[in-house]
Structure formats: structure tokens, C-alpha cells
Amino acid sequence: MEPISLDVRARELLDRAAAASSGRAADTVHGGHEHGGHEHGGHGQALRQTLLALTAGTGLAEHESPGEATLLVLRGHVRLSSGDASWEGRAGDLLAVPGARHALDAVEDSAVLLTVVRRP
User: Fold this and answer.
1) Is residue 1 part of a domain?
2) How far is CA 81 from CA 10, 17, 85, 96, 105, in A?
3) Is residue 21 one of the residues assigned to a domain?
4) What is the pLDDT of residue 58?
5) What are the residues facing 53 on neighbouring strands?
6) Residue 36 above 70 pLDDT?
7) 51 in any annotated domain
8) Rounded (5°) CA angle 102-108-114
9) Does residue 34 lie within any of the structural domains?
10) CB–CB of 105/79 below 8 Å?
């Protein structure tokens, strides 16, 4: 497998997110056959890494946890929330995604690497 420049991909995805009405763009960079999200089903590897780009003020509405997961903030500033708790992440921060329902919001234009080990 050729090395992947997450910096280059993040820039490209932020451009796509800026052009999208949703303000979001995603690309699965490792594992799985589904693209960009928490979909279940299909065949593939248990480990999946998805690059997500979000423009300031956009996010992912509250949703169930797909399995054990982390978010590595590559650019920008995001807020991960679950119930009454929330965690801020900036470039270089690694956030553990809670097992409960959670949401992700971009405080500023941001790119994150979501790593998920899907439940069997």
C-alpha cells in the first residue's frame, strides 16, 4: 500500500466540504467498503479509518457509536459531545469517542481522522 498524505487529503476534503451544501465531506482511507460515516454491514476489515472535513458551524448530529473509536484532529477545532459532557479538540489532539450517543461539531473549518474498530 502506498503512503497516504493525510495533510493533502485533508486540504482536498476541506475544499469539497466548502463546496457542499452540507458543509461536510468524507473519504474512507483504510478498511471497509462503505464510504464516509458510521454505516454497518458489508464485508471488510474490522478497522476503518475515515477522513472527515467539516466547515465551521457544521457537524454530525447525535448518533450511536459504531464501535470503539478515536478522533485525531488534523486541522481546526472540533467539539465532541455526549449527553451533558463535551470535549474540545484542536490540531494534534486525540479524542476517545464515547460508547454512548454522541455528536461532533466544527468550531472552525476542521479535518479529523476517525478510526473505528467495528463491533462484530
Assistant:
1) no
2) 23, 22, 6, 11, 8
3) yes
4) 96
5) 25, 111
6) no
7) yes
8) 45
9) yes
10) yes
Q: How many domains does the chain fold into? A: 1
**Which residue type is seen at 24?**
R
Instruction: Say which CATH number the domain at 95 has.
Output: 2.60.120.10
User: Does the pLDDT at position 50 exceed 80?
Assistant: yes
* Tens digit of each residue's pLDDT (9 = 90 or more) over 53-62: 999 999 998 8
Decide if 61 contacts 104 (C-beta within 8 A): no
Range of the domain at 57: 6-118
Which 3 state secondary structure label does DSSP give 31?
Answer: coil
Q: What is the pLDDT of residue 44?
A: 60
DSSP percent split of the chain into helix, strand, coil, nearest 5:
10, 50, 35
Cα distance between residue 53 and residue 29, in whole Å: 13
Could you give the CA distance from residue 85 to residue 80 in angstroms, rounded to a whole number?
A: 9
Asked if 39 and 67 touch (Cβ cutoff 8 Å), the reply is: no
